[in-house]
Amino acid sequence: MPELAGKIFRINGPVVEIEDISSIRMFDMVKVGEQALIGEVVKLSEGRAFIQVYEDTTSLKAGDPVYTEGVALYVELGPGLLANIYDGIQRPLEEIQKKEGFFIRRGISVPALDRNKKWDFHPLSQQGQQIKEGQIIGEINETLLIKHKIMIPPGINGTLKWIIPEGNYSIDEKIAIVEQNNSETEIFMYQRWPVRKRRPYKEKIPVREPLITGQRVIDTLFPVAKGGCVAVPGPFGAGKTVVQHQLAKWSNAEIVIFIGCGERGNEMTDVLLSFPKLIDPHTKRPLLERTVLIANTSNMPVAAREASIYTGITIAEYYRDMGYNVALMADSTSRWAEALRELSGRLEEMPLEEGFPAYLSARLAEFYERAGKVNTLSGNTGSVSVVASVSPPGGDFSEPVTSHTKRFIRCFWALDKDLAYSRHFPSISWIDSYSEYVDDLKEWWHQNIDHSWFELRGVIMDLLGREQRLLQVVKLVGPDVLPQSQKLILEICSIFKNAFLQQSAFDETDEFSSARKQFLMLKSIIYFYRKCEDIIKKGISIEDVRNLPVYQDIIRMRSRYSEDNLSELENLTNKIDQDIKNWELK
Amino acid sequence: MKEYKLREYVGLDEVHGPLIIIRNVHNVGYNEMVEVVDEQENVRLGMILEAGKGYAVVQVLGGTTGLSLNNSRIRFTEKPLLIGVSEEMLGRVFNGLGQPMDSLPAISYEDQLDVNGMAINPTARVYPKNNIETGISSIDIMNTLVRGQKLPIFSGSGLPHDMVAAQITRQARVKGESFCIIFAAMGVKYDTARFFIDSFEQSGVLERVAIFLSLADSPSIERILTPRMALTLAEHLAFKKNIHVLVIMTDMSNYCEALRELSSVRGEIPARKGYPGYLYSDLASLYERAGLIKDINGSITQIPILTMANDDITHPIPDLTGYITEGQIVQDRELNGKGIYPPIAVLPSLSRLMKDNIGKNKTREDHPSVASQLFASYARVKDVRALASIIGEEDLSEVDQMYLKFGDLFEQRFLKQDYYERRTFQEGLDLGWDILSILPQDELIRMKEEELKKYYKKNTAK
Ligand SMILES: Nc1ncnc2c1ncn2[C@@H]1O[C@H](COP(=O)(O)OP(=O)(O)O)[C@@H](O)[C@H]1O
Ligand SMILES: [Mg+2]
């Protein structure tokens, strides 16, 4: 029940100071003024409380009442999250549109989860059973793709005194009772969880399996693990959003949470309109059925932007607890950091570098710490992978958000302006990017795809490194002075960049490559390189290499070989042999 | 604005810079408007920057010159800043605060709207899907403009951004559909405004243009409101009256400087180069007021113009703009120096909405490949030119020499066009193929094989 918490003393943008405070605690959720704007207590000092308000504060007045909900800012976790789109504090945007029209008004209160919808609950536990926190007691088909596991909320252990039989229920109906030390707790199909607190698990475990993204430069050169963290920094227009959209579309996570944090409205509309039509290559169901969207666009209130990434990661942890592999995309964490900076400024805190508060780094650490692969309370394994874009001012990676982020991630996809200018996409630099997961994931590739994966990856990385040095020479004296063997390296790297690293997000054949296809492409290129190395000694010129018929097959292989005719791609090495034999005969 | 029942107080407690502080006032709403009346009964507008218990800090928009502590009066409107909007405003000229400057008859307003607008719910948006043929090849073929897009021009002082904007406006007129232009000038010289007005007149659209002028000699603070006035009218016309609205805002750099000035008066901690940390959010609150909405026929397309200090694209103003808008058209001093109009640097330019609005059934099936290939080949030209400057043109390989030739023709024939020349998508694409055909087929690996077969010209004048 809301209770009077105090009266407004001062309004300063999204921060409101209240006096005459009673029974109010840090991070309590409050309702401000007559319109009951949602806010959160972020500072208590000298008898006053500072509220960060999640909506526009225009027309608030000193003396207006503030009510407390008596709980910390929370999200509702239950069936109905999937295929939904929320704002930064989990208000359902479709419902709001139905209720209020095209523009978002202030002071709207709509529950996050639909109270009327009935779900087909299937119990998995029996009366009288001993129950532990996190335990799965039933399930629901949330979408055709995803079974929603109904879990006992953390902190509740005891005997299952009663459980509702199989049937159709709305989330407000009690479905079970747990008896614990002579007191009874009612269980519903949804639970609440404070967004700023990580959800508990049994233990973290090492990551060993790649998140296959279908993007060649990522999976083959700079892979990320299920449960890993990646930063994607780059100046505007470099391709951060498209990379994240590609991952949301094609990665083999079971659940995707996409947070549009302070970015464009149209980009969220794009996802909203395209995802229902896109079919997941792994499950053949519309992608939206596994996706939760959080849209706090750049023109929506800045305080809610700050909250949006916590809302997102809490939902991610919830599905992880069911035993799913969840991928969370946050576009862009720089906008989140800027929201933090603005609020900190309004609270008159001491700024550190570029106006950011001293706790920027700690907050980033806390956020990334919530990713990982875990043994859940229910005894399953689940993971949360985080792919976060960073928008450095002026594209300068030495700025505070990029440099602090680097300390907490193990994979870095550096987007390069010059590559983007020449429309080499994804513009992930093979020089500045890195992945510390390669060693962890090697085994998976060797077991599932091919034992030479690590070796071949090493060969191409080495060639790319050598190319870099050769290009320095060419810049000074031109390519003519290079011996044929070095010219070959330039040629192979050029093939690799055009045929492999570039990948169009807008071409049906090219937008997704399976791990197998990626490997076969890599293998063909290296095979071609090795064969050419041999015949170069016999006097073939680079010009002749380019004129081999198979050259066209290789340079165009990304769109020429679809996933359905990989055997043809497999056959490419034979074609190479054949062409070279023919050349030798000539 | 006279219709409100106004509470009035006499006397101010403090005045410094554009800020005044009044004490012993109650019921003051944050961000609402006040009217400050001086001894001569002149009324200036002010905005509540901070509302506290028994006090308020007011930002005076007309400046505080001539205000006295004792004899000034202050009236609380108890409303945020509203602007009267009406289709009758087309063909009229207003000052930066939306008051008519011409001596034409009074306007009967259809509505009074909060100039800050409200955020469009992302679920209510429609993804823009109709391209606009501007007749300028470097835009149409390589950075296609789309109805409902926000596509700024990044320029530098002395570069012909006004001409480019005027040419787009003249040539992109969508015939047969309800169309209008809203022109907002912030801190530019009268000459600039005159240039646009003349150009609207010349193309016979002046009666479909609403003009908001906050010129260089008006108080800089006014500039913060001018684009909001313009966009509020735009939303009314687009979303209530189903009109396709093109909003031209120039110069956004002056707007940002006014914001910086205001921030420093407020004593806020700056982020980069003295600009406030919320510059991004503030700019977004303008730029995001573009687009299309479900079931509504109108649209808002924005072409903001900004001049980059020292042509530096990493400066906070272009940088933050580029992070919000759906691409950018970048002007280049070197091209301008070579006599190339429009001097559009295609490589750093971008249209993010292009991908879904070109190609088969939209322009022509080869459009995506032509664009991509032109980008790739022209990027290569830059490298070859750098190499040529070291080892000399003669020592370049045969292919590299072709690239040099391609680069020159690309600039002289493709980029360059007359201020009155209007090329169709077809013409632009054909021209693209003409020039690309200078390069050997093998070099055109962004082209599909069937496209090469169909369009590659074997016997181009090489
Ligand atoms: N993989 C890709 N394939 C094709 N085009 C791409 C790709 N990645 C980016 N682009 C192009 O680059 C533009 C900018 O990408 P975006 O992800 O929006 O950049 P950012 O988020 O870094 O500002 C896109 O609109 C698209 O035209
Ligand atoms: Mg982006």
Describe this structure in words.
The complex is a heterodimer of chains A (586) and B (462). Chain A is α+β, with helices and mostly antiparallel strands. Chain A is built from 18 helices and 26 strands. The N and C termini of chain A lie far apart (90 Å). Chain B folds into three domains: 7-80, Thrombin, subunit H; 83-356, Rossmann fold, CATH 3.40.50.12240; 367-455, no CATH class. Chain B has an eight-stranded mixed β-sheet with strand order 9-16-15-17-19-14-20-21, with helices on both faces. A seven-stranded antiparallel β-sheet of chain B has the order 1-7-4-5-6-3-2, with no helix packed on it. In chain B, strands 8-10 form a two-stranded antiparallel sheet. Chain B is elongated, with a radius of gyration of 25 Å. Chain B starts with 6 loop residues before the first strand and ends in a 7-residue tail after the last helix. Chains A and B meet through strand 1, helix 1, helix 4, helix 6 and helix 11 of A and strand 5, strand 11, helix 6, helix 7 and strand 21 of B. Bound molecules: adenosine-5'-diphosphate and magnesium ion (MG). The site of magnesium ion has 4 residues of chain A, from helix 3.
Q: What is the oligomeric state here? A: heterodimer
Reported for the largest beta sheet of chain A, the result is: 10 strands, mixed
Mean pLDDT of chain A: 94
Overall SS class of chain A: alpha+beta
Quickly count the helices of chain B: 12
Q: Identify the CATH architecture of the largest domain in chain B.
A: 3-Layer(aba) Sandwich
Radius of gyration of chain B: 25 Å
Major β-sheet profile of chain B: 8 strands, mixed
